[in-house]
Amino acid sequence: MWPRRPEEEVPITAPAPPQSLNKYKVLPSIERRRSEQSSLDNDMSVLTLSDPPDAEGEPPGIGPGPPPPDPPGGSLLLAVRAPCGRRFQRQFAAADTLLAVKVSAEARYGDEYGGGVSIETADVPRRSFTDMDMTLAQCGVVDRSVLCITRDHDGVRPLK
Prior knowledge:
Residues 1-76 are annotated as: Disordered. It comes from Scophthalmus maximus (Turbot). This is Putative UBX domain-containing protein 10. By secondary structure, the protein is α+β, with helices and mostly antiparallel strands. It has a domain at 75-151: Phosphatidylinositol 3-kinase Catalytic Subunit, Chain A, domain 1 (Ubiquitin-like (UB roll), Roll). 22% of the residues lie in helices and 17% in strands. The protein contains three helices and five strands, in the order αββαββαβ. A five-stranded mixed β-sheet has the order 2-1-5-3-4, with helices on one face. The protein is rod-shaped.
């Protein structure tokens, strides 16, 4: 190699800022969104997950004792679909009959379904009950089930 002379040395300069490969400038609204996103990320790193305290100042779920026991026979939260297609949720006891479910739907929507109804479960396999004196426990209805009340038209049951 050829020896360098001092007058040929290239002065060392600070590195240039990185250039975008995009030849167009970023729109101001996008630039603003990027800065807001980075500040949001910084704020999120500081947050912690916790439940808000209840009225007594204690976090929910932490109380003076265990939760109250379920009533005898168990309590079932059921969704009931009436023949009109509307739905509602209600607590029933496992000892309640299908007639109680039908009566609650009639009372809620101000309709009378008469004797030609059946109540079906929405789970698989689908089960249909026409004996309104059976209890929910006898029917095998579990908590958070959906029951559908259907009318029998002219005493003829629809094909399944």
